[in-house]
Amino acid sequence: MGEKKIKPTQRELAILEVLWRLGPSTVRQVHEALLQIEDAKKVGYTTTLKFMQLMHEKGFLNREMEGVSHVYTPTISEEDNVKQVLGKIVDTTFKGSTMKLVMQLLGNRKTSRRELNEIRSFLDNLEENSDDE
Question: Which pLDDT belongs to residue 132?
């Protein structure tokens, strides 16, 4: 129960983002996708391979043999990753208050009328489906 979640590093997150976008992929496919990202141009294939092997050992990736190549898939969905990261931010930075997080975001950013309307609609749906009395 007290299992501590390990969070991905920035480079590991970049690999996960590629896999979330591409789906199951080989190291070569992930590496080529990373080369499209400006920062990744100086990373060699063997570095990507090593990161993905370590991510498999850490439990971030599953891997299966297909022909002569390993095909990797993330063990966590993008949505679950966002929930974990935001949950941690709410707990540590905003002392558990989702309201403080939302107020901070809306107060510090230019939010378009369209976005505000979508937020209102989302809040209306939440309220309608709420179990609170």
Answer: 60
